[in-house]
Design a protein that fits this description.
Keywords: Signal. By secondary structure, the protein is mainly beta. Helix content is 14%, strand content 59%. The protein has one domain. The longest helix has 17 residues.
Length: 123
């Protein structure tokens, strides 16, 4: 009986680790480059374990923040809308762009006022 329980424990531990997916995306625009690490269970659209490393190409400044996915219509049918990362009154967000297929908007706001934005590709 102990062996059976031990085998079940290892089986469920192994299966839970296989469904956990970490993915990395790279944003490249004219003003900013960024790396977004998504570390949540596979198949989950909602995730609050997302990390941003961003560099301003113009002045070489960097920032690293933790954030989450942006979703609408949850919990029924979640629609992925992008990523957001907050730093006090600043908000850093990535949205699929309406300006072209495969393009993303990177928008930085302070007190809900846009202070920087960029258009780029996400790889």
């Amino acid at each position: 009986m102990k062996i059976y329980k031990l085998l079940l424990f290892f089986f469920f531990t192994l299966m839970s680790s296989l469904t956990h997916a970490k993915s990395v995306s790279h944003f490249e625009g004219k003003k900013f480059k960024a790396t977004i690490e998504y570390d949540c269970n596979e198949g989950n659209l909602t995730c609050n374990n997302v990390h941003l490393n961003s560099i301003n190409i113009i002045n070489n400044s960097t920032i690293s923040l933790d954030g989450e996915t942006i979703n609408t219509n949850c919990p029924d049918i979640c629609n992925f809308q992008g990523y957001q990362f907050k730093n006090g009154k600043y908000n850093y967000a990535f949205y699929p762009s309406l300006k072209g297929n495969g393009l993303w908007d990177y928008v930085v706001t302070l007190n809900d006022k846009v202070i920087a934005n960029d258009l780029g590709i996400m790889k």
